[in-house]
Amino acid sequence: MGQFAQQLIVGLSVGATYALIALGYTMVYGVLRLINFAHGDVYMVGAVVGFYLARFAVGAGWGVAASLLLIFGGAIVVCVVLGFLIEFLAYRPLRNRPRIVVLITAIGVSLLLENTAQLQWVFGAQPQKYPTAIQLALNARIGSAASGIVVTRLDVLSLGLSLALMGALSWIVLRTRTGLALRAVSYRFDTAMLMGINTNRIISFTFMFGSGLAAVAGCMDGIRYNADPLMGIQYGLKAFIAAVLGGIGSIPGALLGALLIGITETMVKAYVSSSWADAVAFLVLVLILLIKPSGLFGRHEPEKV
Amino acid sequence: MKFTKAAVSGALALAVAIFAGQGACRKKTFDYDARSTIVLGQYASLTGGTADFGKSSNDGLQLALEQINASGGLLGKQVSVTTEDDQSNSDNAVAAVSKLINRDKVSAVIGEVASTRSLSGGGICQSSRIPMLSPASTNPQVTKTGDYIFRICFTDDFQGKICARFAKDQGWKRVAMLTDTANAYSKGLATAFKENFPVDMIVADENFKAEDKNFEAQLNKIKATNPDAIYLPAYYTEVGLIVTQARRAGMTMPFFGGDGWDSPQTQSNPDTVGCFYSDHYSANDPSEATQKFVKAFAKKYGHQPDAMAVLGYDAMGVMAQAIKDAGSADPKAIRDALAKIKNYDGASGQITIDENRNATKSIVILNVTGKPVPDLAKRYDPGE
Amino acid sequence: MNAITEHATPARFIAIRPRVPAWIANLALAGLLVGLWPINRLLVDQIDPYFLLIATTIGVSVILATSLNLVIGISGQFSLGHAAFMAIGAYTTGIILRHYKIVEPAHGAFQLAAAGEFAGAILLGALFAAIAGLFIGIPTLRLRGDYLAIATLGFGEILFVAINNTENIGPFMVGGSSGLYGVPIYRDTRFFWVWGFAIVCIVCTWRIVYSSRGKAFLALREDEIAAAAMGVDTTWYKVAAFVIGAFFAGIAGGLASVISGNLDPGSYRFIKSVEIVVMVVLGGSGSITGVILAAALLTMLPEGLRFLKEATGPAFPADQLRMIIYSLTLILLMILRPTGLLGRRELFPMRRRFARTAAGGTA
Q1: Are strands B37-44 and B78-85 parallel, antiparallel or unpaired?
Q2: How far apart are CA C360 and CA C273, in angstroms?
Q3: What DSSP character marks residue B254?
Q4: Dmax (CA) of chain C
Q5: How far, rounded to the nearest angstrom, does the alpha carbon of residue B192 sit from its chain's CA centroid?
């Protein structure tokens, strides 16, 4: 039982980072109907920027709290700008082109980020660990009870942050004027434009917000594991699958889907076979596509002429 | 009617083609000794996923080459090594080796570090009858490609066996295993370990895949079996992640693994202190050849050599010895001389090439202490 | 000039029935294949094996790109799993050749039985790839197009995990993560086989595209809903294009297996699929000759970088640089010239001439 509870905590903690990335996928898909392949790489950039900032902060002798503030703050700023630039430079010129053209561009952007990061004078091909002081601070255990169940600060932080940020996002979408516009754009792009909504601004906002969330996830995983120029591929894919599972376009769906994927994966590793765990996420994808393509919370949307 | 026409003219053309094809002549031979220098080839992963290994091995090789040429070269000629980058990709390794053999007309090929790419490149070398010497490919299959393929390192079989023996010597009664299933090296070591360690003393046998970052599910499972030690044959990046996650989960037992651990990252990680791994050599080895190499390497590159560097250095040294013994730069003569290498005094210990073209040499177990150079915990000689 | 969105003039889609009788066309094809044999012998004897190897590898890329062009350029679906189908072909062929010890006849002599066995192994690999394509295609192609990208990507990953975890299938060795080593290398005849299959693949694609059924594929690409409204069974045609593409990818994989003699599961992953996509996009999705040209260019690129590296030193990051060139090519082409180098045009204006006559005939 203790074992099961422990694995559940691991699953939730892993799923929480998937959720932060999945929110970005789901938002972009909601407004543009685009699988933003580069989103996983924005998450990677977050981890890389965080790595350099952490090294700087620790080298300059900053305290842990100040360092963390710098790491997360700096990574968010860089990724928000990056998200804006990707949309502005690569996707905006293609607004009225067929989906396949935008999709190919997205792959291009993703490869560009990955391979630029791998250049020796940018980051290098080898994964790098964050400074030990930062890792130790967040890896500290919280109340190791007699049951032997281990919960670290990072577990709590990641779950707390993704719940809080999802809450913030829901509030923006449901309670603010920007959110209203966002919903309008995602409902009918052309009609929203006719209603006087600046769709380009809304789309930029979506990319920037999603990238900021990815930056948070990137820093968290950077601290927990390491910064790796290819980390965005696996996590990006799984987060996307989570978004599809939850119903792409749905915010609570993304969170629930991500937690489900995280828990399923962990449980498969723990109780079935760890060598096949990676295939599970994709199996889930194929099953959803076969059984309920609109996902758990998605609305069914027939294609219109 | 139409079909008959097609069939007849097709058959006619086929016949002409076959005769024309059979009549053409075969290629002429190339005289390797007529050149003013001895040209060798190297293919290595200087970029891409395993660039660290390739670069390190190349550093060692270049140092040896420098020393050989400074002392007058071989057979009165200078030696040049043409290096091709295979970008850590096995299809690219095929093209790289083909270029070395056919364009540069090298007498012999040194490479690769990774076994999959040595298998790809080895196929070309074998069919072109050019000897290939791998510095660090430990997969048993590599030299089974054919009689032109050699290596100067021990095999996974031997390394896994020694790790099992070391575990027994340490008195560990409950050993858990954690293997990388996407990595042939890791699987090879694990298989050899299992064959040489009592089954009832292996309490857990878990897997992961190299690109994973979270190993907590497997570690929690292992933790529940309460092992004395955990065998982790993997590359250093995953080793770092796994050991750190294990310590965070409250697991304090030692981990032990193979030469994939060899990296400054392993030494600088506070969580790996107290762990063991098998390796090709110890920089603390008092032997003269080793100390001479370590000093020269540190002087040239400004850091301590790792296992790949020492193997690159020895590969060049063994190749030079073979050319000297052969008295010729002819590929066939070099092959025959390589097969007869005996007690070569290398920086990584004495090297003897056996009848299967593998090196029989001793193996060391290193103990991570947090210092830049790990301690030598134990040495096992090939007979054991 | 934005031909992907531009609705082409009807004349361009008029079915062309070439006036050359079919049997002459078939005979010409047979002659071409037969003529390839002495050309192969000549090249093996006279040409530097390194250049011949690259010429052969180009043939494999041509098959891969032409077959993916059928999926992306001609029916407008986006697959990111082409390398996975290639892997199925490579492994099937490699396993059979290795297990039954079907080796190349000495000195590349032509023996009908050996040739039959080899071609059989290749075609079986292609068949398996096509079956896999059917299983992936049916559930995903019913849905919005962009799911295909993710589903094929996922299929590639599952296949990679599966190969890594499979040492043997019954008596057949698969090799797991070490890869399948010891596949016989067809040193003296691989050029013939590769280009022979490449010609067949190109001709098949050509005939599919410029047949009356081919119009359905093109209609699908231009506007799926409109095509459906006109009575085109969209799912059927999408699956058909996808399965044919997978079939030829399987052939390419089988041929690749006798080039290196060693199959590394890691070399059939996402990046390989992307390389093929770049070939199609650069060449001009929809243009058969353009894609062939791009496949040749991009296959030579890493070798070109190899010679460039000799001038710049060993630490030259050729791999990253190549991928950066690829990614920038993708982005810039999509923004500036989404039709690729040749657009819909073909290198040889034959089709246009026919098209004009056809249009003229109806006018």
Answers
A1: parallel
A2: 42
A3: P
A4: 65
A5: 17
Q: What are phi and psi of B28, to 5 degrees?
A: -90, 165
pTM: 0.87
Rounded to a whole number of angstroms, the CA Rg of chain B reads: 24
Number of H helices and E strands in chain B, helices first, is: 12, 15
Which of A276, A282, A290 has the most C C-beta neighbours within 10 Å, making it the best mutation to test the interface with C? Answer: A282
CB contact under 8 A, A274 and B216: no
* Placement of tokens 């590394």 in the chain: C264
Query: How would residue C20 be classed by pLDDT, with cut points 50, 70 and 90?
Result: low
Rounded to 5 degrees, φ, ψ at C204 are: -60, -50
Query: What CA–CA distance (Å, rounded) separates B271 from A197?
Result: 55
Judge contact between A295 and A244, C-beta under 8 A: yes
Rounded Cα distance between C357 and C353, Å, is 6
Sign of CA dihedral B149, B152, B155, B156: negative
Residues belonging to chain A: 305
How far, in whole angstroms, is CA B83 from its chain's centroid?
17
What pLDDT score was predicted for residue C314? 58
User: Which residues of chain C have a CB within 8 Å of the CB of A102?
Assistant: 334
Question: Which residue has tokens 């037969």?
Answer: C34
Distance between terminal CA atoms of chain A?
Answer: 54
Closest approach of chain A CAs to the CA of B204, in angstroms?
A: 12
Inter-chain CB proximity A10 and B206 less than 8 Å: no
pLDDT tens, position by position, C102-159: 888 887 778 888 889 999 999 999 999 999 999 988 888 877 667 788 888 888 988 9
Report the alpha-carbon angle A18-A22-A26, nearest 5: 170
Q: How distant is the alpha carbon of residue C96 from its chain centre?
A: 22
In a 10 Å sphere around its CB, with 0-12 CB exposed, 13-18 middle and 19+ buried, how is residue A299 labelled? exposed
Amino acid at B41: G
Chain A residue numbers with beta carbons less than 8 Å from the beta carbon of C2 are 97
Residue among C328, C342, C333, C350 at smallest CA distance from C291 = C342
- Of B47, B207, B214, nearest to A275 by CB-CB distance is B207
Report the C-alpha gap between A112 and B47 in whole angstroms: 17
Contact B320, B72 (CB under 8 A): no
Long-range contacts of C353-356 (CB under 8 A, 24+ apart): C354/C16, C354/C18, C355/C11, C355/C12, C355/C14, C355/C16, C356/C11
Compute the distance between CA of residue B296 and CA of residue B294 in angstroms, rounded to an integer. 6
Neighbours of chain C (3+ CB pairs under 8 A): A, B
CB contact under 8 A, B212 and A278: yes
Query: Rounded to an integer, what distance in angstroms lies between the CA atom of residue C14 and that of residue C38?
Result: 39
Distance CA A294, CA C194 (A): 44
Query: Do you know the residue count of chain B?
Result: 384
> Which residues, listed in sequence order, are joined to residue B246 by a DSSP beta bridge?
none
| In contact, B320 and B344? CB cutoff 8 Å | no
Which tokens hold the place of C309?
């590296």
pLDDT in tens, B197-229: 999 999 999 998 878 889 999 999 999 999 999
The token pair at B378 is: 């134990």
Contact C146 A279 (CB under 8 A): no
Identity of the residue in C27, C40, C317 whose CB atom sits nearest the CB atom of B47: C317
Angle at B150 (CA atoms; ends B146, B155), nearest 5 degrees = 105
- Is the model's pLDDT at B59 over the cut of 70? yes
> Dmax over Cα atoms in chain A, in whole Å?
63
Q: A98 contacts in C (CB within 8 Å)? A: 4-5, 76
- Residue numbers in A near B260 (CB within 8 A): none
Chain C residues whose CB is inside 8 A of the B55 CB are 315
Burial B305-317 (b: 16+ CB within 10 A, else e): bbbbbbbbbbbbb
Minimal C-alpha gap between B260 and chain C (Å) = 16
